[in-house]
Amino acid sequence: MLPIEFKRFRRLRRSALLRDMVRETELNIKDLIYPLFATHGTGVKEEIASMPGVYHLSIDLLKREIEEISELGIPAVLLFGIPAVKDELSSEAYAENGIVQQAIRVVKEENPNLVVITDVCLCSYNPMGHCGVVHEGEILNDPSLELLAKTAVSHARAGADIVAPSDMMDGRVAAIRRSLDQENFTHVPVMSYSVKYASAFYGPFRDAAHSAPSFGDRKTYQMDPANVREALREAAADVEEGADFLMVKPALAYMDVIRRLKDTFDLPLVAYNVSAEYSMIKAAALNGWIDEKQIVLEMLTGMKRAGADLIITYHAKDVARWLGK
Question: Binding residues for Mg(2+), per the UniProt record (predicted)?
């Protein structure tokens, strides 16, 4: 005889099929965006030491990578470029034959249907490693907007489907949207890194993109990790300026921010599962401490549950294989 009445939640957990039927959040291959790092030269496939399984790829080898990505069913890539030369005006960022511009054209030749998103920033292209124009140790906001807009237009001209400004300069979405429209690229959406924190989770990426700042840090333009209301203000400004997607970066320590944006705005929401989030899991898996597959799927499902519609992740190829099976 049971002393009290109680709920029997386990009824819906008795079998895998039952659990699948009542699952509330579904991670799908179509949710994934895979970052790629294009570099000059030929025959270059250089593994990034702090990001096992992620490579710098020359344009010729990028073709093979796109073939694999397409076969896995991943719908989109996010392109980053490693320039041959850096200068104070970040010239290769918006050069007609810059590394990203070359990569866009190759990707589109290999698979015209793959969605090509380009990172729009200056940090990899100037010797200071900052995301805007630097003058006498100060990162200048307004002069940076012109170069960022030029970069976005050059990417669109090369064939990019979406441009994604990651610099965190004030007003960059408005500047980019205006320039795209003036150049008859009204059809090209802006995926704004709307909420980008001054995070310690970017270390391996800075190795990958050769973009570590040569002085100071990025706290004068990236956000304080302690702030949430500020995130809503940043996102609201981007919506007003014409953003088509919003993004939260990083993702793992900012699930609450993802949820707040999801509840507040009706634009598609992107979570960036960043480099250190990836590398921590890879390191633990290589040491045999965790089940990599289960951890990754749980983590990305959590991002979806928090409200992300799309996830940028270096795990994308592995996840596509796991979900495909």
Answer: 234
3-state secondary structure at position 134 = strand
**53, 125, 264 from 268: Cα distances, Å:** 29, 29, 12
Report the CATH number at residue 74: 3.20.20.70
Respond yes or no: is residue 196 known to be catalytic. yes
Residue numbers in the known binding site are 121, 123, 131, 206, 218, 234, 275, 314
CA distance 283 to 220: 31
- Active-site hit among 86, 249, 282, 317: 249
Please indicate, yes or no, if residue 245 is contained in any of the structural domains: yes
The CA–CA distances, whole Å, from 99 to 85, 130, 286, 299 equal 10, 19, 33, 33
45 catalytic per annotation: no
Q: What is the pTM of this model?
A: 0.94
**Catalytic annotation, pick one of 7, 86, 108, 196:** 196
Domain hosting residue 197, numbered range: 25-324
Q: What is the pLDDT along the chain (325 residues), one digit of tens a residue?
A: 667 888 899 999 999 999 999 999 999 999 999 999 999 999 999 999 999 999 999 999 999 999 999 999 999 999 999 999 999 899 999 999 999 999 999 999 999 999 999 999 999 899 887 888 888 888 899 999 999 999 999 999 999 999 999 999 999 999 999 999 999 999 999 999 999 999 999 988 777 766 677 776 787 888 999 999 999 999 999 999 999 999 999 999 999 999 999 999 999 999 999 999 999 999 999 999 999 999 999 999 999 999 999 999 999 999 999 999 7
